[in-house]
Amino acid sequence: MSQIVIEAGPFTFDAKLEIELAPETCKAFAKAMPYESQLVHVRWSGEGVWIPLGNHDFGVGYENHTSHPAPGQFILYPGGISETEILLAYGGVDFSSKMGQLAGNHFITITSNQDKLFELGNKVLWEGAQKIRFRMA
Question: Is 102 helix (H, G, I), strand (E, B) or coil?
Fold first, then answer.
């Protein structure tokens, strides 16, 4: 099953796990669902929000990785040069850290309410951390 629901701040999004493009990342993340955390605004990457995960190890390497996710795409950076993290692009993103440019695995794509992404990003930017919850549909 690849359909998931994401509740972020006051918004609800339908989304799909990109199982064919990032099978190992999707499998590892699906095991963690339902998954709850906090979204904070990115520091280096542009118009994105992220879930910092410190040293958490999902046990995956690079697959379907990019430095420029499109709005509505989630990427998982498996760690290494910088801390493990999940990032959601709501606008233009050049995925980076204080160590330089990074690449993360594109593993989730939002399929509904994409018109609310910029509003979510601005809410996180101006009002602070917002709750996020991922669950199977």
Answer: coil
Q: Give the total residue count for the chain.
A: 137
C-alpha distances (whole Å) from 106 to each of 10, 80, 114, 122, 125 are 24, 17, 17, 22, 23
pTM of the model: 0.96
Contact 94, 10 (CB under 8 A): no
Query: Which residues have CB under 8 Å from 24's CB, separation 6+?
Result: 60, 61, 63
3-state secondary structure of 109: strand
- Torsion-angle region of 111 (φ positive above 0: left; ψ -120 to 50: alpha; else: beta): alpha
φ, ψ for residue 122, nearest 5 deg: -65, -35
| DSSP code for 99 | T
Task: Confirm if 76 and 86 have CB atoms less than 8 A apart.
Answer: yes
| pLDDT tens sequence across 58-112 | 999 999 999 999 999 999 999 988 999 999 999 999 999 888 899 999 999 999 9
d(CA 117, CA 13): 9
